[in-house]
């Protein structure tokens, strides 16, 4: 285990150490259970997370009681290969596994085709007469082809079954391998004796179809993973680090530690959360915050990992290690969603486990029955029962549908952070929307202008716009967009959180908060009760104007609310804003149930009362101050990535901040739930029909192989089609 | 019927050749990306080397 150092391995809080790796060869719930149980039983191991979809394993342990080598050895002993997860090594391992799978599939397919020709020859020969030495030649040729198929293409099933038996459990591979070995052995014996049936073609076909099902399933899962991880994948693999002597070297992303000085080139992704060292940088943070407009950051400000540098190359100092960065936590959220098995899938797994036991018992019963009644049919009937009842379809139905739905949503910009979120989302009947930042964009628009002094309205606006021109404050854009009449400004000075000051035609103007602007005046004016609802403009002589800023509906809001209604959902607004504003917005959207001036407690009470009335509620908020409210709802959905990530309370994240995605998410979840139900029904129905026929000896082995594989393929392909369907 | 003495081994050799060709194609990365390669004909840029092993390109 000398390669242990290459594994992603770090110190965790409270003296724990953690390692993450890729367990090669893991493909079923039984494998995952085995790792969880065996590694979890090691002394000092606190936590074992096994992600079946990605084959990732994460272990946290107390370094005083166990060592990394022990953990990895345990995994290897179970028959899996622990491969470093990150960077090129992990990718290469996955690539190898994928290619090996394809080769196995190709070999089995080509061999099955060739052998079916020999079988036809033997079959026709049996009727029209065939010279014994030709018959013998055909059998031997078929065996020669079948040996590599069995040993290479069939290896995953044989190895899986062997591992299951060594662990004294019954996995899905056990009946499969039993059928393969039985058929193969009988065929070899019959070839030797040169009499009786050979089943080499059935063996190759069975292996081919089983592999085909697994291959397609692997691709569906990989697709869902790729879509979710597109964001995380945008990270560079290597970054340029500056040395003390001003030289630089390229290091792997995982090696970046807090305090490193890094150079980020034009157009490059900022690798970790960091602080800008000097100058200014223009960055696009849309991946993280959904804010499409690039923002200017000056020296000393924080740049989040995942933002894109749009300006010249800049030097930054990493404020966190690579594995604790914003983007890393995003990756962790995706991981969490995939590591948790949806409850339905768990139930199906347990059912499949018991099912295998019943299959094996049934096969023994069938064998006994036929040996007693008609020994010549015993072998084929037993084989058919083993093959036809493989519970693959049953076990695949849920995970494949969830993976497909996740992939579909990811493409719409919706990140699913919890595995069971889709199941819950399919059941909701009420949507509660927050207003600010959800129904309305965070950007403000200029509303009413109140002239308070001698300056006319147009002049007030152009002065304010000119002053705000350089400002990066979110409110500034409301002014800049409102007029094109800009004037030259001298001695411009911005006070953070207060306002902007500058000279226009020799007159000193201030725009900003009431207190800041009136500070120029000699006399202290009477305080205004709702001063904070306005932006003020004034000179040393007078208070000139008050600008009301209103938030504007997102352009897609009306259509999005309509879409939610079409799905039969009740829609309500809960906002902390003024009642009048909320009423105006609600009227525009045609929503009757709208409440304003609600603090988080009131929102919480609203959700609780809806739930008490028997509704299942989806709460959509901006994720910033809605944490507890989001947590209380049956399903929660937060806008954007930035703030929502910190809380991670939301089940769904709308990465592109488009409200129309909410309706799409509900629709997709419902369809996925339908798909799961249909798949389970199909798998169950198939087994109910096929088992009696097989037990009665009416199904020849090749037909059994075809039927079993078709049922798995059918389940997987339906999920695959679901990914590609238009919404 | 003695022709089958020639044809059956010949079929075995052809099969081995087909399997060999397929294995070569898999190892050469011919099946890595079945969706987007067709679009490369429309690119203005000369084709970049296929990112076979490393999905995250260097920045």
For the termini of chain A, the CA-CA separation is 49 Å
Largest sheet of chain B: none
CATH class of the domain at 412-440 and 554-669 in chain A: Alpha Beta
Shape of chain A: elongated
Topology as H/E string of chain B? H
If interface size is counted as residues with C-beta under 8 Å from the partner's C-beta, which chains form the largest one?
A-B, 33 and 24 residues
Would you tell me the overall average pLDDT of chain B? 74
Number of strands of chain A: 27
Structural class of chain B: mainly alpha
What helical percentage do the residues of chain B reach? 40-55%
Tally of DSSP helical segments of chain B: 1
> Regions of chain B with pLDDT < 50 over 5+ consecutive residues?
50-59
What's the number of helices of chain A?
Answer: 24
Mean pLDDT across every amino acid position of chain A = 77
Helix content of chain A: 40-55%
Biggest sheet of chain A, open or closed, and with what strands and sense?
Answer: 7 strands, mixed
Give a verbal description of the structure.
The complex is a heterodimer of chains A (727) and B (59). With 727 residues, chain A is α+β, with helices and mostly antiparallel strands. Among the domains of chain A are: 2-85, Alpha-Beta Plaits; 257-320, Distorted Sandwich (Calcium-transporting ATPase, cytoplasmic transduction domain A), CATH 2.70.150.10; 412-440 and 554-669, HAD superfamily/HAD-like (Rossmann fold), CATH 3.40.50.1000; 454-541, Calcium-transporting ATPase, cytoplasmic domain N (3-Layer(aba) Sandwich). Helix content of chain A is 52%, strand content 19%. In chain A, helix 19 (579-589) links the parallel strand 23 and strand 24 (593-595). In chain A, helix 3 (87-128) runs antiparallel to helix 4 (132-153) and helix 3 (87-128) runs antiparallel to helix 7 (200-233). The longest helix of chain A has 42 residues, at 87-128. Chain A is elongated, with a radius of gyration of 33 Å. The two termini of chain A are 49 Å apart. The model of chain A is unreliable at 1-7 (pLDDT under 50). Chain B starts with a helix and ends in a 32-residue tail after the last helix. Chain B has 1 helix and no strands. Chain B is 42% helix and 0% strand. Chain B has one helix at residues 3-27. Chain B is rod-shaped. With 59 residues, chain B is mainly α. Classes of the chains: A alpha+beta (727), B mainly alpha (59). The interface between A and B is medium-sized, with 33 and 24 residues.
